[in-house]
Amino acid sequence: MQNKVFVLSNTKQPLMPCSPARARQMLRDGKAAVFRHYPFTIILKGRESGEVQPVSVKIDPGSRRTGFAVVARFKSGQTVVFAAELEHRGQAIKNSLAARRAVRRGRRSRKTRYRAPRFNNRTRPSGWLPPSLHHRVETTLTWVERFRRLVPVAGIAQELVRFDMQKIANPEIAGVDYQQGTLAGYEVREYLLEKWGRTCVYCGAGNVPLEIDHIHPRSQGGSDRVSNLTLACRACNQKKGNRPVGEFLSKKPNLLKKVLSRAQSPLKDAAAVNATRWALFGRLTHTGLPVETGSGGRTKFNRAGQGYPKAHWIDAACVGEAGEAVRLDPGTIPLQIRATGHGTRQVARTDTFGFPIRFCPKDKTHFGFRTGDLVRATVPSGKKAGIHVGRVAVRSSGSFDVRTESGVVQGISHKHCRLLQRADGYGYSQIAKQIG
Question: In the chain, where are the structural domains located?
Answer without folding.
Answer: 53-77+132-306, 348-413+422-429
